[in-house]
Structures are given as C-alpha cells and as structure tokens.
Amino acid sequence: MHVLHFTAMASSSALLLPSGPSFVKKAWCNPRILSTERIPILCVHCSASVSGPKTLSKRIYDDFTLCGRRTAIGMVLVTSVFGLPIVGSHGAGLPPEEKPRLCNEECEKELENIPMVTTESGLQYKDIKIGEGPSPPIGFQVAANYVAMVPSGQIFDSSLEKGLPYIFRVGAGQVVKGLDEGILGMKVGGKRRLYIPGSLSFPKGLTSAPGRPRVAPNSPVIFDVSLEYVPGLDDE
C-alpha cells in the first residue's frame, strides 16, 4: 500500500494543481520518499512560485515538474519512475491461462479429415471418437464432460474446469437444444464436436465474465462433448 500526501501552497484542492490567471504559469515540486518499516510514503511538496530548484536529486529524477491540469498524469509518472507499484498492476504481462480441452492440437488436425454430419434441424457434428457403450434413450440421465466455445475457439464454459461431469436428463430441455440433440446418438466412451447453430443455441445469450467471452443471443456455438456414462444402463 502506498500513501500519497500532497501539500499545495496555492490551492485548497489536494488532487489537482490549479491553473488560471490568479496563479503563476509554472509550479515546481520537490518529491521525496520517506521510508518506514512497512509502508513507503511518497511526499510531494509543491509551490506556485516561479523560482525553484533547477534540478532534483540525480538519484530520483532530473528536472521533473508537475504542470497545471496534468498533475494526475504526472503523479502516475512519478510512481513509475520511483519504482512504486501501481494498484492493479500485479499479474500484468502474464501469459493467458491455458484451459483444459477435450480436443488438443493433434485432435484438431484429425478433425479436418473427419466427415461432417448435418441433421434436419441444422445441427452439425463430427465424431472424434466412437464409443462402445450404450446410447442414452430420451428421458435418461447422462453424465458428460463438455467444453463450450464461441466460433473463434474461446472457451466460455467447461465441466473440465469444475472437475466433475455434468449430469442432465436427455430431451428434458435442461440444456440447449443442440446439445440435447447431439448427445442422443452418442455411445458411452464416445467424443463428439457439435457445431450448434443459433436457432439451437442460447436464445438470450450469455454475458461476458473475466477471461470468458460474451455469447450473443441466438449465435452459433461449438461444444466438445464426451459421454462418460448413463446411470442405470452402465450398471446393468
């Protein structure tokens, strides 16, 4: 935490150095760093006098001035010059977090050679892997992992990040229509990419969140889905 103290001799405002006919054209400031055991404090003492020190300490900054209405910008510069961290700067420049996916780079290359299937509703899909277990009848619960993306490939939802498969009842309207339809023909152990058109997607869309893109209403989305098991059928 850094505390900024200002003493403006020509103004009652502690935030901006005023400008106008009643004040001189140039103000000079003498920034000093007062160190304590825990909190470094930057003190800037300003004067509206024309005369002032021509140079500041070589260790701090040479010929630094804060002028008129640009004081706010100048203080940001002072903070960066003195090496004081700015609030909210932590984590800047870090590489984007790599999110887990059901289809890696090798899988993406293989998808190019897999034929596309188009249904009467307009849903399209490619089978990444054909399962060997049972297919879920309408009304049965299924446990599936999924990674939901916008067409650019940005992930907006994923069961992999939550660490548990998503359980829902097929054909009951508990998920978007494209996912409901797309998982019906799958077999347990299978993996499929669904290209869901806007008419089978999110009617109201989804708002954006940190690190997650916005989904516009009735816009196409992509789901990678793996059918993990069907309770009641796998147990037989």
TrEMBL record:
Domain PPIase FKBP-type: 139-231
EC number: 5.2.1.8
Entry GO MF terms: peptidyl-prolyl cis-trans isomerase activity
Keywords per UniProt: Isomerase, Rotamase
Enzyme class name: isomerase
GO cellular component: chloroplast thylakoid lumen
InterPro entries: PPIase_dom_sf, PPIase_FKBP_dom
Catalytic activity: [protein]-peptidylproline (omega=180) = [protein]-peptidylproline (omega=0)
PANTHER family: FKBP-TYPE PEPTIDYL-PROLYL CIS-TRANS ISOMERASE FKPA, PEPTIDYL-PROLYL CIS-TRANS ISOMERASE FKBP16-3, CHLOROPLASTIC
Protein's name according to its UniProt entry: peptidylprolyl isomerase
